[in-house]
């Protein structure tokens, strides 16, 4: 038994709650994972996992051992990475979770540039607007655009965005232009559902953040669809600047309620917790930080 390999397999099984899922993520046979964990338990002389027909759970010994395994493997990877950094450029796979619209419009070209600069790094880009579980899905880092991170998130802020309320000139001519967020209750709004409920939009009113309830007949988990619906005169959308700026510039939609700004959205790189950050991932984080900041400073 290779004890470090067995520890790595034990960690994945514990995180995913399944031998099959761990084997799939590690690219090995399920029997190999089962055999290694069983050998680890035999070596330690104690059960690490309680097995049931539905899901695995850790014993008290398994819970304590899991944290120690994480510390040990992090130290091993940090030691090896430290030596490797002195003699070679970044190499190896990076799996990235990207929000669909921002990923395509802004990050896709940057990531292709990164891949050109570092040919020994392979990128697996997962474009989705749903909230991903980094540990369960084997993602090395994700980009999250939000006004509020979750407690415990390991993240670095690399930029910011702002939601803009827009409608087409045709819609405003037919229904009037709302002058206050409260007037949205009398309008057809276009609901964004990927982050949860689409029924409340936030504005700063008299120096305080206020949630305004809206009604929406058309809902979608993608902002580009809703911005296009707004441009077609189907309602009022509240979407990030990187989605609606080009529509505003072309005159297809107009920004409204500018006197009532929305809370700023942070653009964050989020990492899985309790893991050493590989050199290649740190290089990518630094690259994205620099590119986003230099891009924001360009006229």
Give a short synopsis of this structure.
The protein has helices at residues 3-16, 19-26, 30-44, 60-85, 100-117, 169-175, 223-231, 241-250, 279-297; strands at 49-50, 57-58, 92-98, 121-127, 141-146, 154-167, 189-192, 200-205, 208-213, 216-220, 236-240, 254-256, 264-271. It is an alpha/beta fold and 299 residues long.
Provide structural commentary.
42% of the residues lie in helices and 25% in strands. The protein has 3 domains: 83 residues, Orthogonal Bundle (Arc Repressor Mutant, subunit A), CATH 1.10.10.10; 102 residues, Periplasmic binding protein-like II (D-Maltodextrin-Binding Protein, domain 2), CATH 3.40.190; 104 residues, 3-Layer(aba) Sandwich (D-Maltodextrin-Binding Protein, domain 2). The chain has 299 residues and is an alpha/beta fold. A hairpin with a 6-residue loop joins strand 1 and strand 2.
């Amino acid at each position: 038994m290779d004890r470090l390999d067995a520890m790595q397999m034990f960690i994945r099984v514990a995180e995913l709650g399944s031998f099959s899922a761990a084997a799939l993520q590690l690219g090995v046979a399920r029997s190999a994972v089962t055999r290694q964990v069983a050998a680890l338990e035999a070596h330690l002389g104690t059960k690490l996992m309680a097995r049931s027909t539905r899901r695995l759970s850790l014993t008290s010994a398994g819970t304590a051992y899991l944290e120690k395994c994480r510390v040990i493997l992090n130290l091993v990877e940090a030691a090896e990475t430290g030596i490797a950094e002195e003699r070679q450029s970044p190499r190896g796979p990076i799996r990235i979770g990207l929000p669909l619209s921002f990923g395509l419009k802004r990050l896709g070209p940057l990531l292709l540039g990164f891949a050109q600069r570092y040919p020994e790094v392979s990128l697996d880009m997962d474009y989705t607007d749903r909230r991903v579980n980094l540990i369960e899905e084997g993602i090395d880092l994700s980009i999250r655009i939000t006004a509020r991170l979750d407690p415990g998130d390991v993240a670095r802020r690399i930029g910011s965005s702002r939601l803009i309320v827009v409608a087409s000139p045709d819609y405003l001519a037919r229904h009037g232009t709302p002058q206050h967020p409260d007037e949205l209750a009398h309008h057809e709004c276009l609901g964004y559902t990927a982050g949860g409920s689409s029924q409340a939009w936030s504005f700063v009113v008299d120096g305080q953040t206020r949630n305004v309830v809206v009604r929406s007949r058309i809902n979608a988990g993608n902002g580009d669809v809703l911005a296009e619906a707004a441009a077609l005169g189907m309602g009022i959308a509240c979407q990030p600047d990187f989605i609606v700026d080009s529509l505003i510039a072309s005159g297809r939609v107009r920004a409204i309620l500018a006197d009532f700004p929305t809370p700023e959205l942070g653009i964050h790189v989020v990492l899985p917790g309790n893991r050493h950050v590989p050199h290649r991932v740190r290089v990518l984080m630094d690259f994205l930080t620099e590119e986003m900041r230099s891009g924001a400073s360009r006229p």
